[in-house]
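quick one, 163 residues, struct below
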Amino acid sequence: MITCTFENGNKAKIGLRHVTVGAILLNKEHTKVCLVKRSTAVIAAGKYCVPGGFMDRNENTHQAVLREVLEETGFEGKILNLLCIKDNPDREGEDRQNVDFVFIVEAGEMKKEKDFETASVEWFEIDKVPPKEKWAFDHYLNIELYRKYLANSFPLPFIGSLQ
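---
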């Protein structure tokens, strides 16, 4: 829940939808995907997810995803494409109704250490990621969609339900 100031000056705690970003972070050869394991400092501790998080007030979605990749993995990134926008208010494993922009990003140079939100940064072959029950939120669906894209090469961004 966030506190908002509305046009009439009233402040209220209200359950508005948040904007989040996520990255299918690939190595240079596009054969592996980088996942982060969440630290005990955040919800869903010990679970895997794609690098990502909330968009800041002063940035667009491209800036947000590259910032989150850098913060959570230490890697610079280069956006290759927008994979999808998830706007289903009943997303699996998601109680805050975030609207999520998921990008395909190529990892660049390692620039810094991961932040406190990340317990570990791990690379997996695309078809050998951890099973769905080890994932936070609905991020496993991002990987499933990316695999479908690799197999069938449909137009991006994907528009439709991932569930």
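The two ends are 25 Å apart (CA to CA).
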